[in-house]
């Protein structure tokens, strides 16, 4: 007789724990059903979402964002924001998606990233930004959300995924539910951890593209001086404390020896008036 | 055979099947190379830097889109004569390290074609005898001449989940000419947008949650379709980075963080 492996023993123990060791009674059967449901729930949250479906969901979420705030028709401004955005997105890209950038016409100060590469910045934010390095930092932060799949990963854990057994189920009404769930997440705010990770990725992308790595921190610091203003209410409600973000950004820049870079303030001022 | 041995065999077979499936998936690769050489474009001419100049100027000379499933591969080479506009792509189809130039009238071995004398085109054949890519999968790399000076700088962007049709790599039969050219170039480019247009339908009013409470929003699908169609173009992006000293034109900081 061969000796049972350690893994085999572990599986056996887990099975006993899951099923219980005695004959099933109604209470035990209910308990078992609950455990099976729980296991199915865990399995459901692990269902991946393909890139094609991510883009479809992102398209819907982006349409909701554009429904809340109108998209700017200023061609020179749109072109400029796309050029800055593509410059930072090209550093550590997800080559399986195309990035699109647009300006939302609203005095609210904010930026959004929908899955699939749809990135928005408000005209209110552009008005507070001083140079291209700051803009690059903000857009790179949003690209970080896309690359780390923050919204998609939250959607995968949401109740809206309950009826999704395969990629083919992500269509029609189910697609709409996933879009609704993703839109709520964007407007209510992502987790503190996701925001701080996006800060870190944004700093990395903007600096590697050749921008002054202090751009994002400088912009966040400027927002602090406008705290309490109505246009910043949603931003403060959906992002970690500015001082915490600035401290972390400075620490990362020091640790990674990120220095130098250009701010291109004149180019920014010549286009964003 | 005992039940235990049978189970073990099953696990091994399943492992092999999973391994085979993942190998098959890993075989497909797709990436784009943007190729730069020292110098700059002036009046439609590529001006080489002086032999003793410590030049940091790089000129975009071509872009190559690669599709590979070893030992077969396809390279679509777009050249520029001014650093701004890209010409129509030349298509190479290859197996291992051998390539044919595909034209509208047929296919000619690269070594017998005039393009075979172009060092940049020859350098675009980045495959070994087994048809595997040589060089890194992603990122920037510098190829130096025997003298130690920079010969080419390549920016490589890999596609994470290639979904191209393997027929693109087949030079045989009737597909060797115009059909192959037409089907390949357009099909690869349109794969994603088609699915978006097909299933992202028009939705009614959504009630979204915000920090200020529920807000009724009518999604603007047309605005996003317009975003999808908008493109600044690779040449404009290249010029933007060049004028700002960004991306490939960024001056690297020295060990103290200072820029020269």
Short description, anyone?
The complex is a heterodimer of chains A (273) and B (260). Chain A has 273 residues and is mainly alpha-helical.
Descriptive terms for the model:
heterodimer, A: 273 residues, mainly alpha, 3-stranded mixed beta sheet, globular, disordered N terminus, B: 260 residues, alpha+beta, 2 domains, 8-stranded antiparallel beta sheet, two-stranded antiparallel sheet, 5 helices, disordered C terminus
Structure in words:
Chain A has about 270 residues and is mainly α. Chain A has helices spanning about 5-20, 25-45, 50-70, 75-90, 125-130, 130-145, 150-155, 170-190, 190-210, 215-225, 235-240, 240-255, 265-270, and strands at about 100-105, 110-115, 120. Chain A has 13 helices and three strands, in the order H-H-H-H-E-E-E-H-H-H-H-H-H-H-H-H. Chain A has a three-stranded mixed β-sheet, sandwiched between helices. In chain A, a hairpin with a 3-residue loop joins strand 2 (about 110-115) and strand 3 (about 120). Chain B has about 260 residues and is of the alpha+beta class. Chain B has two domains: about 25-195, no CATH class; about 200-250, no CATH class. Chain B has an eight-stranded antiparallel β-sheet, covered by helices on one side. In chain B, strands 2-3 form a two-stranded antiparallel ribbon. In chain B, strands 11-12 form a two-stranded antiparallel sheet. At the A-B interface, helix 3, helix 4, helix 8 and helix 11 of A face helix 3, strand 11, helix 4 and helix 5 of B.
